[in-house]
Amino acid sequence: xxxxxxxxxxxxxxxxxxxxxxxxxxxxxxxxxxxxxxxxxxxxxxxxxxxxxxxxxxxxxxxxxxxxxxxxxxxxxxxxxxxxxxxxxxxxxxxxxxxxxxxxxxxxxxxxxxxxxxxxxxxxxxxxxxxxxxxxxxxxxxxxxxxxxxxxxxxxxxxxxxxxxxxxxxxxxxxxxxxxxxxxxxxxxxxxxxxxxxxxxxxxxxxxxxxxxxxxxxxxxxxxxxxxxxxxxxxxxxxxxxxxxxxxxxxxxxxxxxxxxxxxxxxxxxxxxxxxxxxxxxxxxxx
Length: 287
Hints:
By secondary structure, this protein is α/β, with parallel strands linked by helices.
């Protein structure tokens, strides 16, 4: 596995593969790799000639009171995992090479970036859109792979690629979960034993809401109330940013369920903010 730290070298390496007719699969991460990340790497390997993984904790997507400095890092462990998965390239740039002195260009995707997490983390998706634009320009992938757990992020990135005519296919892969349903996340490492147990309430809440939709209930406000009540009954939940029913394309909150529906949650367990979602396709009745 080749390790590259300088963006220009990464660009030149990708150009060389492209000139030889090779396809490039790209998995951008912030490290502390878990099975969810590795499933993306495996899919990229199956579908492409070259697999590139980036590890970069992006300072631009963290707010001033958020956990950038405390965000977990495990470069040695991550490198070993990618070596075992036989990734071809690990791209690990320094922040000063991604955001050099005088950097002043940012990318914003309007409207959808302002909903859900964007309402509580105002600069977050500006930072995400900017770094993804840079990484796609540097790595030049044929396909880039993202997990569905960060559903809003995938919608923002798809819109970004479409609007800017970027030559990469965005592949969204299923959320991987622990045996008890908790979505795999690097932030799960923050949870103590009691909080880890309590965090299963998120998946239980999504399952209950999905079952209500599948039973024929179309009142989204009722389902939202059930979700919020279930979450707030858990003593370890210290904050609730949102829990509700949304349009999976526009991310607008729904009052009535008429078709495919996104259930989405963002809660704090102790000091750890966790997100999760579930896409529900209601049972359609035919005459």
